[in-house]
Amino acid sequence: SYPLVMEECSMDLYGPTLTFQNLCYCITEKQGFFCRKGHKKDVLKDVSGIMKPGMNAIMGPTGSGKTSLLDVIAGRKDPQGLCSGEVLVDSKVVTSDLRLSSAYVVQDDILMGTLTVRENLAFSVNLRLPPDQFSSQDKVFRVNNVLEELCLQDCADTKIGTEFLRGISGGERKRCSIGMELITSPSLLFLDEPTTGLDANTANSIIALLQRLSRNGKTIIFSIHQPRFSIFRQFDHLTLMNKGEIIYAGPANQAVGYFEDLGYKCEVFNNPADFFLDVINGEIDPVLGLPDAGGNSAHVVFQSSVNLYRQSHFCRQLTEQLKQMKQAVEPSVTAVREQSSYATPFLYQLRVVCGRTVKNILRNPQTSYAQLILNIIFAVLVGLIYFQIPHTLPEALQNRIGAFFFLIINMVFGNLSAVELFINERALFIHENSSGYYRTSVYFLSKVFADLVPNRIVPVFIFSSIAYYMMGLKTDVEAFLLFALTMSLVSLSAVGLAFLVSASVSSFAMANILIALPFVFMMVFGGFLVNLNSMLSWMSWMKWASIFRYGLEAVTINEMRGQVFTDNYTVLTGEMYLKMQGIDYSLWGFWQNEIALLGIMSVCMLLAYIQLLRINRWK
Ligand SMILES: Nc1ncnc2c1ncn2[C@@H]1O[C@H](COP(=O)(O)OP(=O)(O)OP(=O)(O)O)[C@@H](O)[C@H]1O
After folding, report:
1. Among the listed ranges 106-115, 387-396, 524-533, which one has the minimum average pLDDT value?
2. Which of 432, 387, 485, 472 is nearest to 617 (CA)?
3. C-beta of residue 19 within 8 angstroms of C-beta of residue 88
4. Helix 477-504 and helix 458-471: axis angle, to 10°?
5. For the chain, does the N or the C end have fewer beta carbons within 10 angstroms?
């Protein structure tokens, strides 16, 4: 039978020890769209363990709860689902400081595709090490060190790659993802299925790398799916899970012996990892017969394995160790969830994140080019249709108002592309924000500034210049500047609304539906398609939220004031026309429209920021 002393090769290494006791985690599965209550599903059932410095693997069939266990102990899973149990690191309740000194490598590599491997690593090191303690040289040294350690020198200056741009290979991506976390030298590293989707050799080299790191005193905890033997033999500690319960937790090299003592025979050439799964799935019959099982159907085997593990000396010893450790817990430390703190100050983060966003736009300039070209084509088109509008009635009025309506439609609908802003990089933002790279406000400001200047303000100004002079509107510079300002504010308010939608949903389809609806309503209540005074009173309030109405009124006042239009018999001043339309053409009458547009933009931006803060970061 197995030895009584649970000596693991990593016992004498110095590094953090993670313990978890009686973890029960359940999720509520909602049934149907309107159903508020759903049935509860136990994902983890009374799970306890100790993870020491070294290689700690969590294995089990799919759906057994490996990732859930990893997420709960790494503090990534929604704490609302935690029914009982606690996680301690070195007998202390996990706080934000501990969270900063640990790192989590997610399963699907989340990296900025337009940046090179080196730039991605530099981004991580710049944001996650305090600038007052680490000089630029230190950071460059760390990046080079990680590149060397992960054998990434050959592709260090190659871009990661996007769906349109072929970049580095899958194995290199995975190593880069690990490098993003290793760069801060965390003593506690969590990895979710680090070998999934990789070829055998790459998988082997990644596990060998992790093992090398673990020998330097790091506690490496990872979930893994059926590793081959050369990988399995590098594990120090193994946790085998099935249906949310532990069926073995102990030294990896004693696991085969444990199951053989229960009567299961592992063939000479069989891979232990395959053997465990066969045992769990009830595909191997026990040679001796299970001590307390009446048959070997999968359910009976599962129940028996759980019970047998609970009765084993591994479990008893674990309970004993946990009891001793619990007595050492500092009584003053209470389990409060702290706000995550950041390694770098706000302005420093803003500089680094803005730098990356600008680099990303410069390397992926299609959207900016398309926006600019679209605006130029549209300006020339409007200019040709309404070329040099005369001052004779009735064309003078009809063409001017028609042109303004056309321009404002273009300003509003031409900015639909802004809905992609927060949807595109949602996964990247969630990962980086919850890993403590930067504050939500920093990300929001960097995205907004980097989008507004090249994609909105510059194209609108070019658009206004071309259209204004081709249409032959008022010739003085002040009128042109006020026209350009109004166009920019109309555009920015529409962009604000698009940002709000973008921050609120995670799919383009949903965003398109949500953005089209208010735009169409605003157009109807713009004052051009329907006389607002004749509208049903209970609907008329909508005109106060119409970007079209404010924009249309502002450009009309700006153009009509001081103009004289004539036909053979009549003379009509711009002011008379404005009065007939019920438009207040005083100075305040003009500026109140600009202020309203500014207000719509600010409120939408603020709500977009609040929506970003509300995004669920839990797994
Ligand atoms: N947030 C959640 N919402 C719904 N179900 C969940 C959630 N988290 C976990 N589960 C359920 O808990 C069970 C365990 O999931 P988990 O992802 O931990 O399994 P796993 O062992 O990692 O599986 P795999 O190897 O396939 O990734 C699954 O049945 C899963 O559907």
Report:
1. 524-533
2. 432
3. yes
4. 140
5. N
CB 222 within 8 A of CB 70: yes
CA atoms within 13 A on the CB side of 194: 32
Degrees, nearest 5: CA angle 227-3-297: 55
pLDDT above 90 for 556? yes
> Which residues make beta-bridge pairs with 41?
27
Atom of ligand 1 nearest to the CA of 68: 18
* Atom 10 of ligand 1, residue of closest alpha carbon: 43
Single-letter residue type at 375? N
Report whether residue 68 contacts ligand 1, using a CB cutoff of 6 Å.
yes
For residue 581, what pLDDT is reported?
A: 84
* pTM for the model: 0.85
Q: Is the CB of 137 under 6 A from ligand 1?
A: no
Give the pLDDT band of residue 10 (cuts 50, 70, 90): very low
Nearest CA to ligand 1 atom 30: 63
Q: Is the distance from CB of 205 to CB of 151 less than 8 angstroms? A: yes
Q: Is any ligand 1 atom within 6 A of the Cβ of residue 206?
A: no
Give the residue ranges of DSSP H helices in 218-345: 229-232, 255-261, 272-280, 298-311, 313-327
